[in-house]
Design goal:
Helix content is about 25%, strand content about 20%. It has about 100 residues and is an alpha+beta fold. It has a domain of about 60 residues. It has a 3-stranded antiparallel beta sheet with strand order 1-2-3.
C-alpha cells in the first residue's frame, strides 16, 4: 500500500507487533532507591536512582537510566496516571520531607 492509499472504511487497523520483555535474574528483584536525580541535555534525559542510608552523608547510585525526551515524557505520563490511580485507592501521597526524630 502506498502512502496515498488509505485502507477501506471499517477495515481493521494494522496491529503493532507484540514486544516480549525478558527480565534477567540479576535484575528481577529490583534495586531500592530513596532519591532520584534527573538531568538532561538536548537529546537525552538521565535518571540516577540513589540509595542513601539514614544518617549517612553519602548515597550510592543503584541504577542510571538514559532515555530520549519522547520516552521521558511517556514516563512522566505513566507516572502521573499511576500516582492518580494509587491515590484513588490508597489516599494522597504526602511529598513533604520526612521529619527526622531527635535523639
Amino acid at each position: 500500500m502506498t502512502s496515498s492509499q488509505k485502507p477501506p472504511e471499517g477495515a481493521p487497523k494494522p496491529q503493532q507487533p507484540q514486544i516480549q520483555i525478558q527480565i534477567p535474574p540479576e535484575v528481577q528483584n529490583g534495586a531500592y532507591a530513596n532519591l532520584t536525580f534527573v538531568s538532561h541535555t538536548e537529546t537525552e534525559f538521565v535518571f540516577d536512582f540513589v540509595y542513601v542510608l539514614p544518617h549517612e552523608p553519602r548515597g550510592v547510585v543503584r541504577s542510571r537510566v538514559i532515555a530520549s525526551p519522547k520516552q521521558a515524557k511517556r514516563l512522566l505520563g505513566a507516572l502521573q496516571d499511576n500516582i492518580s490511580r494509587y491515590e484513588e485507592r490508597y489516599g494522597a501521597v504526602d511529598t513533604l520531607p520526612e521529619k527526622t526524630p531527635v535523639h
